[in-house]
Automatic annotation (TrEMBL):
Signal sequence annotation: none
Superkingdom, natural source: Bacteria
Protein name in UniProt: Radical SAM protein
Entry GO MF terms: catalytic activity; iron-sulfur cluster binding; metal ion binding
């Protein structure tokens, strides 16, 4: 398989064949993100993409899941995505789900009809990095979108019937915005009602603007106890109507949480309360990673 630079995928796409349909991230300005710093954003040529698919077909007898990378593959024109999804259908009739990274502005640029078309061609799940629901924090981390735009994008995906997996980052507002981050993030999730919510814990990567801010003492990282307190406030404020799978069991997290909301809400809060009572020995810092 041919890949340009480092390739990233959500944890739940661990067993997927990753197809780079674009290179890098068209925004590439978030202060905490180092993923695509070495890449200049570009869309890949359709012929190249089709060649990769042919190569994958000749290597693998069965591919059940395909993930479209890089950072915001949904930035491609709908007609190009349509051609890619049709080619996948033709070459991999056994494929059960196609996933994609999506940014709010890419979703907003497409109509619900376009998204429904992509869904009908096999696009089953979109991953949306919300990071925080607080406009103050979104501005500070240079996310390039407002909470209203995130809500509009998320709702559009749900309306189109594409499963939505939203990600938040614990500690992204520092200690002074702990409550605001938790409450505002819950507000955005409540508005969107995504199918999945994933909670990562902030890890500082060298080479990012946030790393420099931490070094200069301008941004304070949360202690494990503060992260747990923030997570508790977030969960307390989540009001999910139907089923939403909540996961905070990424390697970056201090406490592993997994459940389905709304029914597991109290159980998740109880786990956090238990951990908040003891001194931090839940996970050695050394073992936290992306
Ligand atoms: S967090 Fe997402 S939108 Fe921001 S720079 Fe990284 S890949 Fe791009």
């Amino acid at each position: 398989m041919r890949y340009v630079g480092s390739v990233y995928r959500p944890p739940s796409e661990a067993y997927s064949y990753i197809l780079q349909v674009s290179i890098g991230c068209s925004h590439n300005k978030c202060t905490f993100c180092s993923m695509y710093k070495e890449k200049q954003f570009r869309k890949r040529n359709l012929d190249e993409i089709f060649e990769d698919l042919q190569m994958a077909r000749s290597h693998y007898s069965q591919i059940k899941r395909i993930f479209l990378a890089d950072g915001n593959a949904l930035a491609l024109k709908t007609e190009d995505l349509k051609a890619i999804l049709e080619k996948i259908k033709e070459l991999f009739p056994e494929c059960e789900r196609i996933g994609i990274y999506s940014a709010p502005k890419d979703i907003i640029r497409k109509s619900v009809e376009e998204l429904k078309l992509l869904k009908s061609l096999g696009l089953g799940i979109a991953y949306l990095g919300i990071e925080s629901g607080s406009d103050k924090i979104l501005k500070y981390i240079k996310k390039g979108v407002t909470s209203d735009e995130i809500i509009e994008a998320g709702k559009k995906m749900i309306e189109a019937g594409i499963k939505l997996s939203a990600t938040l980052i614990s500690g992204i507002g520092s200690d002074e915005n702990l409550e605001e981050h938790a409450i505002e993030s819950a507000r955005v999730i409540n508005e969107i009602q995504p199918d999945y919510v994933g909670l990562l814990t902030l890890l500082i990567q060298q080479g990012t603007e946030l790393y420099d801010q931490v070094q200069r003492g301008e941004f304070k990282l949360l202690s494990p106890q503060e992260v747990m307190r923030e997570t508790k406030i977030l969960i307390e404020n989540l009001h999910i109507d139907e089923k939403c799978v909540f996961r905070s069991n990424h390697a970056s997290n201090y406490v592993s949480l997994a459940g389905t909301l709304p029914e597991d809400k109290q159980n998740l809060i109880n786990i956090l309360d238990e951990n908040l009572k003891r001194p931090y020995d839940v996970k050695e810092e050394l073992f936290r990673r992306l």
